[in-house]
């Protein structure tokens, strides 16, 4: 069902208020790895509004490698996130980690994110097949392109056709970067599926200085959009600060992404 053989026309998702994801426009989504406070959200949302970025990312349920690391503000944080975003015309993408959260999060998200550690959580995918909200599925940490497509097939065949695929880097033998951003996946996915393909260069390379370069490369590779981490003070971020852009870097990247998209 997610194959181009089944549907030739590219899928374009309409999030409302003129926000679309898919061919015909460049989707930009930015924000902190973790939602930390109302003050932080205010600053980041202002940064997004100033740069005409309509989608904010930010986790309230965080899958952390260490159980002692900050694990997010939970539902209370999500409710604040939602209220503040609505006031500013911003759409929200945030990670859902387990089946029980799908229903409680439903009214407060615009796009459910399935994280790389949950790409093959088939119960979660089944649950998301039953909702009427878009789902962005990240590629598994050691997942193949085919496995990513199979995960999408779970949600699609469950009845939810509002899907976005996200290349966020895979684990390889290389240790010079956090992950290996597999830009090969972009043209391959674009050929194989009618679904929108987004690139996450922040988790893909994991090093702040190189995030803009890889974001631009993602657009040139044919991505429909870029999702990246931005924060008012990356060095103080509760998670993933080392791969997070400050507002100045983010603003410059947004400008360059729009320029490069036009050249494509
Ligand atoms: C994130 O988006 O902050 C995140 C945890 O991503 P991933 O699942 O790709 O590691
Ligand atoms: Mn992160």
From TrEMBL:
Residue ranges constituting the DAHP synthetase I/KDSA domain according to the UniProt record: 14-258
Name of the protein in its database record: 3-deoxy-7-phosphoheptulonate synthase
Gene: aroF
GO biological process, one term: aromatic amino acid family biosynthetic process
Its EC number(s): 2.5.1.54
Whole-protein coverage range: 70 to 333 of 337
Enzyme class: transferase
GO molecular function, one term: 3-deoxy-7-phosphoheptulonate synthase activity
Keywords associated with the record: Transferase
Record lineage: Bacteria, Pseudomonadati, Bacteroidota, Cytophagia, Cytophagales
Domain of life: Bacteria
Coiled-coil region: none
């Amino acid at each position: 069902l997610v194959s181009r053989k089944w549907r030739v026309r590219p899928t374009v998702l309409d999030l409302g208020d003129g926000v679309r994801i898919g061919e015909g426009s460049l989707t930009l989504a930015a924000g902190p790895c973790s939602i930390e406070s109302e003050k932080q959200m205010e600053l980041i949302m202002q940064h997004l509004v100033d740069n005409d970025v309509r989608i904010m990312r930010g986790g309230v349920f965080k899958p952390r490698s260490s159980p002692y690391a900050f694990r997010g503000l939970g539902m209370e944080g999500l409710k604040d996130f939602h209220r503040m975003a609505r006031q500013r015309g911003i759409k929200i993408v945030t990670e859902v980690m387990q089946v029980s959260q799908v229903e409680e999060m439903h009214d407060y998200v615009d796009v459910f994110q399935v994280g790389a550690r949950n790409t093959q959580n088939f119960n979660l995918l089944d649950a998301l097949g039953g909702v009427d909200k878009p789902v962005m599925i990240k590629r598994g940490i050691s997942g193949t392109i085919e496995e990513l497509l199979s995960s999408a097939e779970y949600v699609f065949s469950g009845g939810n056709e509002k899907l976005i695929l996200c290349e966020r880097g895979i684990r390889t033998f290389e240790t010079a970067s956090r992950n290996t951003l597999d830009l090969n996946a972009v043209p391959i996915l674009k050929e194989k599926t009618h679904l929108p393909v987004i690139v996450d260069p922040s988790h893909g390379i994991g090093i702040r200085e190189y995030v803009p370069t890889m974001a631009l490369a993602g657009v040139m590779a044919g991505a429909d959009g870029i999702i990246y981490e931005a924060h008012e003070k990356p060095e103080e971020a509760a998670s993933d600060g080392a791969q997070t852009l400050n507002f100045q870097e983010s603003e410059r990247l947004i400008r360059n992404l729009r320029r490069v998209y036009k050249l494509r």
